[in-house]
TrEMBL record:
Residues 385-582 form the Peptidase S9 prolyl oligopeptidase catalytic domain. SUPFAM superfamilies: alpha/beta-Hydrolases. It is an enzyme of class 3 (hydrolase). Pfam families: Peptidase_S9. Keywords: Hydrolase. GO terms for molecular function: hydrolase activity. This is Alpha/beta hydrolase family protein.
Amino acid sequence: MRLPDAALSQRHVSEIFFTERSRFLLSWDEGPVLGSVQDDGALHIDVPMDAKRAPTDTRIGLDGDAVLYVESREVLVTVHLNDTDVVVVESGLSGRSERWQAALPPAEHGHWTLTDVVHAWDAEGAHCLVLTVEDDAGSVELHQIGAGKPTRTHRPAMPGQLVYWDLRCDAAVLREDRGPWDPKLHLERPLSKATPQSVEARWADGWEGHSLIIETPPGAESRLVAWDLTASSQRTVPSPAAHIDDARFIRDGRGRVLVVATIEGSDTLHLWDPNNDENAQLPLDGTGRLRIRTAGPRGIGIYQVSTLGGSFWIWLDRDANLHRSRGEVPRYGGRATLSHVWYGRTPVLRYLPEQPPVAVVVSLHGGPESLERDELRWDGLYRELLEAGVAVIGLNYCGSTGYGPLHTQRAWKTWTTAFREDVESCVAAAAEWGVGPADIALLGGSFGGALALLGCVLRQDLAGAVASAPLIDIRRHAEQASAADPSYQDWFGARFELAASATPTQRVFDPEHLSATAPGQRVFLVHGSEDEVTQWQHSKRAADEAIRKELPWTLVTEAGAGHVPADIEEAEHRYQNIHSALLQVLGIDPATKATS
């Protein structure tokens, strides 16, 4: 069968989406105020035609050692460090700028190197900046600077990156990343020098001496916690029984909180009021992925995108009213449907074309501890498949998050048994549509790419697989990750069989085992030669092993590309390569050829 010409135009969605998701949502003025970095290296501000405050054609230079957007003041800050002098330029969205200077104490060893900058409040409640600097011997100091004010120095007692500083409540919070585990957040007292307090959680937001953190207790789902930085006390925020993705304070003086929670593969918005401890879901048209882009005194800005609905910019004002403006990714023009269903114990997002499907693609997210959401997965590829009459099953396989710890942990060290159940459930669902195994292809990225290959090993009557940047050799991958960060050793050891004495079948994710597909299965590996996460060399080894067995495998090497595309040209090449390979696996006339 041949892909309809109408579907080929959807190829441009990948370019539109890549461009739009790299734009900055800065504010709202009768519509989204957006910024984009263009070829001249400056940030260009785009505003709606009926904007009341922000002028058009604003260009802000970004030629500094560090650049920071201060949401609370809606200004862009560039910092220039010259030995012990700091020059700061603050530019508003109108383009007007102010310039001031501060002095740093001399470094004990050599010179200071600027590594980070955050917006903060000093002890008098005035806005300031805190610079993280490092000398030639690796000593780290935090320097609070402000226009016309003396510099205050603090040497942190705990390691980590500064995420919050407010001397009105004598609080500084540093985030210590710990590889696959939740970070450690260290609350230090720069004024009193009291002993730091530490918690294990993800940082979400901080405002007026209060913060929002997301904890994941052992054997439990994530939960939102309000952390009083003055009293060092914590309070669990009533939230829906779901995966808590993000949260922000509404800067309205009432302490209300906007929460993003993922329910059945789609993000939802909830408003928590600490005054009555109520949590209410906000009305939101459609489904999709929601990413908070900015949060300031005037409101909270959100980017929404979904496979069928396209993209939107959303603004929550101080009165908790939602405003929407359509983005550049158009709504899908066909009549496909999306629903969240369970195939036995397997939760899926099911995309069905208008007519009975002629083939099925089972899509496998990376991770493994991530989840399939309703977003523009694979840069709009689902749309083309639906247009060609192909159903898509977005599989939240056993091992995924978002469905409770039992669903996540049931796959640990039993990946073959657990994933076989997931694959069989998809095959059974396809049979109800009249689609047999020979018309089912597996599509996966990163760890999902390894699962796509495993699925072909388990069901050798499937059409084949397309694996993008697959994680093929789990033992060597774990060794490399642990060498860079020892915390990965226990994480991998709890989930996978890593013993060198184990057979390839026992390790499951091993080049020799994953290359044992059937002679009739087409397999494509698409991998960047400079992948910094998974190894191209491992894909090469698996492909060589399969070709030695005279199996129809193809390795498409993207020269110079990393784990994910770094620019629009790489994104287009990755998209075309995966699109072409998948159509060949399904026996659909390819409209494009793989670009090696």
